[in-house]
Design brief:
Blueprint lengths: L2 H18 L14 H9 L7 E6 L2 E7 L3 H11 L6 E4 L2 H10 L6 E7 L4 H16 L3 E7 L4 H9 L7 E6 L2 E7 L3 H11 L7
Parallel strand pairs: 3-5, 4-5
Antiparallel strand pairs: 1-2, 4-6, 6-7
Helix pairs in contact: 3-5
Pfam family, one: Thioredoxin
Organism: Chenopodium quinoa
GO molecular function: oxidoreductase activity, acting on a sulfur group of donors, disulfide as acceptor
Length: 200
Amino acid sequence: MSDSDQSSQIYPFMVELSRTCNDVEFILVMGDESEATKALCKRENIEEVPHFTFYKSMQKIHEEEAIGPDQLVGDVLYYGDSHSAVVQLHSREDVETLINEHRGDDKLIVLDVGLKHCGPCVKVYPTVIKLSRQMDNVVFARMNGDENESCMDFLRAMDVVEVPTFVFIRDGKICGRYVGSGKGELIGEILRYQGVRVTY
């Protein structure tokens, strides 16, 4: 498949994605459209298409080349600003506030701890979003450990050495954790901490 074929196949998918992701703005640049776009591609070292660059607050945070629709969805969901069903945490204080809000309500908190450029973190995140919309009695939250020093301090304090790490918290206490990006395993662990007997 040529580069242009791959780009033309992903374009309709990207258009549909732009209609459903209200917190993400999509900008299409045709690399061979003009001398200016060719110069832009050269300046940005874009060698393969389709090429996706993700910006937040005017800062480049992630790039992908020659990816398919599934990976694009994962990237858009992971790097998008907000998803109402998943609480976005930006500091240790945010985590403490969330825990205190749910102390005593017997809800399980599933804290997804990852890093900005972690492939497995991106891969599992659509599952986290889907589960957050389906499990009303579970609170889902996410923190990127490399977002700032407060987040890094939290990772060190929690002894997180691999990502993604899912920390399970109930009534202010950590009741377990799962390290990995296996969708089935994650669902199994959440169910287990919800009191459902799970056999592997």
